[in-house]
């Protein structure tokens, strides 16, 4: 049996690849179970400092497998359980201190939009098409679309997507702020990996904590967020990573001063 998700870890980078290409990586029960397990694994491993999400075949993710829903689920409670399993995986990603980059291509629709939004930085292939399209099959948003879409693009634009069958081009998605970059179709995974490598080659822990601060901010008041910022920067100051970089910054500043007064 083919694994519904491919996972590899190399030099701190976890590559998580949705692997149902014949169904455009749409979620069925097997993929949902693998997603929950793999995301929990990669966000808790000591040897992972960044995660790259991608999809095998012609599309990143077309959401839920409607055919599987119609033919294998006996009741609405089965669908609810499926959604909860995928949601636990999304929470593993968004609540972690590991930054996530997505390499998206082809169709990104329905729940696939939510999977993309669970990344912290999305690189889109120029041929990508991105939309909601839940109402096309009489269903409502899940997989974090209602939780994250409006935060990403604003309420009015979020409503435009969920209240129509519009599919954005990659350039439109860039203009809306849904993705960070648009690159040629054949370079999307390589560019996403390059982004992840900048995190791994840089202050990895600081990047992870910065991601956590932004992602978790809606759960706090402004005063609480300021307190959390103060606590986090103080904790980061004591890390070997920060001490080494601060010392290097100080040396560079001293060298510049010497040259200016030479």
From TrEMBL:
It comes from the Bacteria. PANTHER family: ENOYL-COA HYDRATASE, POLYKETIDE BIOSYNTHESIS ENOYL-COA HYDRATASE PKSH-RELATED. GO terms for biological process: isoprenoid catabolic process. This is 2-(1,2-epoxy-1,2-dihydrophenyl)acetyl-CoA isomerase. It holds the Pfam family ECH_1. One of its GO terms (molecular function) is isomerase activity. Belongs to the enoyl-CoA hydratase/isomerase family. Keywords: Isomerase. InterPro entries: ClpP/crotonase-like_dom_sf, Enoyl-CoA_hyd/isom_CS, Enoyl-CoA_hydra/iso, Enoyl-CoA_Hydratase/Isomerase. The keyword Isomerase applies.
């Amino acid at each position: 049996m083919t694994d519904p998700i491919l996972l590899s870890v190399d030099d701190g980078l976890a590559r998580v690849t949705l692997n149902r290409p014949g169904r455009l990586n749409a979620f069925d029960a097997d993929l949902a179970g693998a997603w929950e397990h793999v995301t929990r694994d990669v966000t808790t491993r000591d040897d992972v400092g960044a995660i790259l999400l991608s999809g095998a075949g012609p599309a990143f993710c077309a959401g839920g497998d409607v055919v599987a829903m119609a033919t294998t689920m006996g009741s609405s409670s089965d669908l609810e359980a499926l959604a909860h399993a995928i949601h636990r995986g999304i929470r593993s990603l968004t609540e972690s201190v590991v930054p996530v980059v997505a390499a998206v291509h082809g169709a990104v629709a329905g729940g696939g939009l939510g999977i993309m939004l669970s990344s912290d930085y999305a690189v889109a292939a120029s041929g990508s098409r991105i939309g909601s399209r839940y109402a096309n099959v009489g269903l409502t948003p899940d997989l974090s679309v209602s939780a994250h879409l409006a935060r990403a693009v604003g309420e009015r634009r979020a409503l435009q997507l969920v209240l129509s069958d519009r599919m954005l081009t990659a350039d439109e998605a860039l203009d809306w702020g849904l993705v960070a970059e648009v690159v040629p179709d054949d370079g999307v995974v390589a560019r996403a990996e390059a982004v992840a490598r900048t995190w791994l080659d840089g202050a990895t822990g600081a990047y992870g904590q910065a991601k956590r601060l932004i992602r978790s901010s809606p759960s706090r008041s402004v005063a609480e967020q300021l307190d959390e910022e103060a606590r986090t920067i103080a904790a980061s100051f004591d890390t070997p990573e920060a001490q080494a970089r601060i010392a290097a910054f100080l040396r560079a500043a001293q060298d510049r001063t010497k040259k200016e007064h030479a």
